[in-house]
Design goal:
This protein has helices at residues 4-17, 22-26, 106-110, 129-135, 159-166, 200-203, 255-258, and strands at residues 45-48, 51-54, 88-92, 102-105, 115-122, 149-158, 174-179, 185-186, 189-190, 198-199, 208-213, 216-217, 227-229, 242-248, 281-285, 292-293, 299-307, 312-318, 326-327, 329-330, 339-346, 352-362, 387-391. It is an alpha+beta fold and 392 residues long. A 5-stranded mixed beta sheet has the order 4-3-14-7-10. Strands 5, 6, 11, 12 and 13 form a 5-stranded antiparallel beta sheet that branches. It is globular, with a radius of gyration of 21 Å. Bound molecules: ligand MTE and molybdenum atom (MO). Molybdenum atom binds at residues 74, 123-125, 235-236. Residues 71-76, 121, 123, 179, 181, 194, 222, 235-236, 238-241 line the site of the ligand Nc1nc2c(c(=O)[nH]1)N[C@H]1C(S)=C(S)[C@@H](COP(=O)(O)O)O[C@H]1N2.
């Protein structure tokens, strides 16, 4: 774990040492992002356009749950300040038996049976800047380093229960949640409100309409009063500020399944891959890129590991650029949908630059590759991170 001293040293030397953008920015005072309500202290967040990235290294002092005031924000436009008392959800579409819209007030939603579950929420583009920093490849989109992720305990109602109460027909194939935030305009084109269809099978499986995050009402920036939580799927599936659900008897699309959130590039068909669904697996150290550590001392390296496919099975660590690997100790019980902290002692003897690596293997046998196959929008970076540090 970086001591305060190593952090300060890292901050001082990072601009010279680091090839990666995080170290330069994370410790400077971040201005408030346009449209984000909560404070964004510079030690915890890096503002990227309308978004705020959590400082991954600084998550070292958080547990399995990420506090709401440390949770990344990904906004296409601006956080709307909605009032639960005049909010309602409209469920509509030709996938309903009676074909007429059904509405739920906040109170009606709260009176349905509630469920609580811990789930990681991770943007499809988390780690995107590593395509460039580590693989020398060009990608478009927000240049996240590794902090477009958090885990929270979400409480709400099963989407399945809401759909059954609204009278979903057995031939419904898609459910499209849509947000109440402003329409998204990019490159002079209005794409409308943020929306992305879920296949009915996912909607009827484990998706939650959440009204609480870590035991508190959802904060404005995270979807107040009600948002979708689609466990193990890419962040865009978890639509915030939910306003309506279109239930359809035929497949649905939106710019978020056609233009975005598919894999485009040399390795993929001309129209791109199928729309992305599940997130991938990753691991990282709780250290700034370019951190400076003392030789001749024992450091307790810590980090965290996760997989959207299965519980984490093991994390292997290398402190010599990938020649020798050893198994790290897991500090949390691996769970589906959660992440685990890992630790390993390290006693560097020689001074100079060192590359630290960590590699997650999950219970399904998936393991982080050395490289991620390039896609133009930089989604689903899953490669082992080559984390440069300096021993002095
Ligand atoms: N209505 C709406 N929902 C949204 C978004 C948005 O801009 N508007 N951003 C999506 C994306 S891309 C991600 S990664 C997650 C981020 O959730 P968070 O801001 O609570 O961390 O919300 C998703 N839901
Ligand atoms: Mo995202």
């Amino acid at each position: 774990m970086p001591t305060r001293r190593t952090l300060l040293k890292a901050a001082a030397v990072a601009p010279v040492l680091s090839q990666l953008p995080l170290a330069r920015k994370a410790f400077a005072d971040a201005p408030t992002a346009p449209g984000i309500v909560k404070p964004l202290p510079g030690e915890y967040f890096t503002v990227r356009g309308t978004n705020a990235e959590a400082n991954f290294a600084a998550l070292a002092d958080t547990g399995p749950l990420t506090p709401a005031d440390r949770f990344f924000v990904r906004n296409h436009t601006t956080t709307p300040r909605l009032d639960a008392s005049d909010w309602k959800l409209t469920v509509w579409g030709d996938g309903l038996h009676r074909r007429s819209p059904v509405t739920f007030t906040y109170g009606q939603l709260r009176s349905l049976p509630s469920v609580t579950r811990t789930a990681v929420l991770e943007c499809a583009g988390n780690g995107r800047s590593l395509f460039t920093a580590q693989q020398g490849e060009t990608v478009t989109g927000t240049s996240w380093t590794y902090g477009a992720i958090g885990a929270a305990r979400w409480r709400g109602v099963r989407l399945r229960d809401v759909l059954h109460r609204a009278g979903i027909a057995s031939d419904a194939v898609a459910v499209m949640p849509r947000g109440l935030d402003d329409e998204y305009v990019t490159g002079g084109v209005n794409l409308g409100r943020v929306r992305r269809p879920l296949p009915a099978a996912k909607a009827l499986d484990d998706v939650i309409l959440a009204y609480e995050m870590n035991g508190e009402p959802l904060p404005y920036d995270h979807g107040h009063p009600v948002r979708v939580i689609a466990p193990s799927w890419i962040g865009i599936a978890s639509v915030k500020w939910l306003g309506d659900l279109q239930v359809s008897a035929s497949p649905l699309a939106s710019p978020w399944t056609t233009d975005y959130y598919r894999l485009f590039g040399a390795a993929y068909p001309p129209g791109g891959s199928e729309p992305l669904t599940r997130q991938t697996l990753k691991s990282g150290f709780h250290l700034p890129y370019g951190a400076v550590l003392d030789a001749g001392a024992t450091h307790r390296l810590t980090g965290r590991a996760w997989s959207a496919y299965a519980p984490v099975h093991r994390v292997d660590v290398s402190t010599d650029g990938g020649t020798r690997w050893r198994r790290a100790e897991l500090l949390d019980a691996p769970r589906r949908g959660g992440w685990v902290r890992f630790t390993t002692p390290w006693h560097p003897r020689r001074t100079g630059p060192v590359t630290l690596l960590s590699r997650t293997t999950d219970a399904s046998g998936r393991t982080q590759p050395e490289r991620t196959v390039h896609n133009t929008q930089g989604y689903l970076f899953d490669a082992v991170v080559r984390h440069a540090v300096t021993v002095v």
